[in-house]
Amino acid sequence: MLSSTSSAQGKYITVSKVPETSTTLFSQRRCVSIIPKIPTIKFYSLRKKFAEMTSNKFKPERVAVLGPDLACLEWLMECGSSSVLMSDGTEITRIKQMREFIKSYGFDVKNLPKLEKRIEPFNEKLIKNENLYAQKWRNTPQIFIKEVDASDSAISDEGFNYFLECKMLRKLRLNHCDYFTDTALRILSTGRSSKSLQDLEICLNPWLSDGMAYWVVRLKELKRAHFYFLPYVANRPATLRQMKMGLPRAKITFPETDKIGYGYDSKE
Questions:
Q1: pLDDT of the chain, 268 residues: tens digit per residue
Q2: Which of 71, 92, 192, 207 could disulfide-link 181, Cβ–Cβ 3.0 to 4.6 Å?
Q3: What DSSP line would sit under the chain, residue for residue?
């Protein structure tokens, strides 16, 4: 234990006698540190907060200028996504490549033109009515996101608003993403992607809970969904059963965590 002692030479720190266990004997061989340790969970929360306040900040004015898919592409790559496949066959894997791709449509992401006209906020009518959607975005580039691998990226809940009006998203892989929660799936299930998404994969996420099933079953076009190592899900069998009942035509897997990896079947 540490104690403070005053003397003629000044104030100094001493180590009081403690029981000599194997741990304390090991510790006493090293220098005593008076710098407090930062709790891991607190440091983790600070990183999550930083991600939410920077690259994940939703900016509707950028969506209005670039269109929903190019704005979403910019967000995904700024957050460190692995790859994004566009409807013209282009696969974006780097930030520089993303900026050049957007520039090919006449936009400099560092100097976007000012918004001349207010764009109507997203609403459910835009999901149901294709004509309204086309009318709203008639002046933006007709290029769309088809597949996203955002594994190991820093995407968080607020950023999922960029998916709201992406109408051709087919595949979404979100492995090793530490910052998004059930709220992200709620946003995803209430946008246009709920009518197009066919393949969803989420492995190793520390925030998703049993409540995610309520939002997953709203993705009615899903053909495949795979989940693995979601430690905050308290009742895995019940969550899996709820998703299978809500999406009877989809292949949904959520195996028990019994091996290293992504929990794939040998067939996958």
A1: 444 444 444 444 433 444 444 444 334 444 444 444 444 445 456 667 777 777 899 999 999 999 999 999 999 999 999 999 999 999 999 999 999 999 999 999 999 998 877 777 788 777 778 898 999 999 999 999 999 999 999 999 999 999 999 999 999 999 999 999 999 999 999 999 999 999 999 999 999 999 999 999 999 999 999 999 999 999 999 999 999 999 999 999 999 998 778 888 745 5
A2: 207
A3: -EEEEEETTEEEEEE------HHHHHHHTSPPP-SPPPPHHHHHHHHHHHHHHTTT---HHHHHHH-HHHHHHHHHHHTT-SEEEETTS-EE-SHHHHHHHHHTTT--TTSPPPP-SPPPPP-THHHH-HHHHHHHTTTS----EEEEE-TT----GGGGGGGTT-----EEE-TT--S--HHHHHHHHHSGGGGT--EEEEES-SS--TTHHHHHTT-TT-SEEEEE--TT-S-HHHHHHHHHHH-TTSEEE---S-SSSS---TT-
Residues 62 and 158 in one domain: yes
| Domain extent at residue 19 | 2-38
| Statement to judge: residues 97 and 214 lie in one domain | yes
The Cα–Cα gap between 134 and 3 comes to 72
What is the reported pTM?
Answer: 0.81
Whether residue 116 is contained in a domain is answered as yes
